[in-house]
Fold:
Amino acid sequence: MLQQLLSANLFGFFLVFARVGTALMLLPGFGESYVSTRIRLLLGLVLAGAVLPIVAPRLPGLPASPVALLVLLGGEILIGFFFGAIGRIMILGLSTAGSIIAYQASLANALVTDIIAAEQGAVIASFLTMVGVLLVFVTDLHHLALRALVDSYALFPPGTLPLLGDLANDVSRIVAQSFLIGVQIAAPLIVLGLVFFFGAGLLSRLMPQVQTFFVLQPLQITLGLLVMLLTISAGMLVFLDRFAEVFAPFARG
Structure:
């Protein structure tokens, strides 16, 4: 009897870990490349152990065949990937905003290694993504994401495959929303760039002998950084609201 109980508990634990661990692999702040793999694994195991007593009544029994077991685990991994991906997609909206701002401020060639995206990118894009992840943790929105992951067991019970069409529609909508956030945050710089380039083009027509863009580049950088300084707080508030709206429908509390 003890052996059967231990086997059932281990199966439930690793079934929960399949969903939780996959989500932690992608969620902002938890799944970053600079976070040690051992720490992420330990956090996933601890969180799975804490969630197991809550969702234990919803867990199915041990499947009779290996194929059924693989299908069950595949469904849990897919759901965890979905929750981690939507958080990651929202953070990428800040990277989009930073790239647009860097182009409008003539800083597109100022590249650094973006530790959030794990690739080389514009320095402003890296700055915005780091600020975004920091604000997510400061405002406790990571708690909302984890609560949505736990409450997902009521919406996506283990053993029932989610509708791939619905998941695809949600991901498409969130991708569009993420890009919209990036454009909204960078909108003041887009307007500044249009006015600045129009004025620079007009000046170059009136004074062809002057190297207009070479002379005006320091002014473009200064104005771009100044406008970003004045508007970044409002942009981050918009991002936090949209980030919460993405996970709020899945969290009951």
Remarks:
- The radius of gyration is 23 Å.
- The chain has seven helices and two strands.
- The beta strands are 111-114, 119-122.
- Residues 164-206 form the longest helix (43 residues).
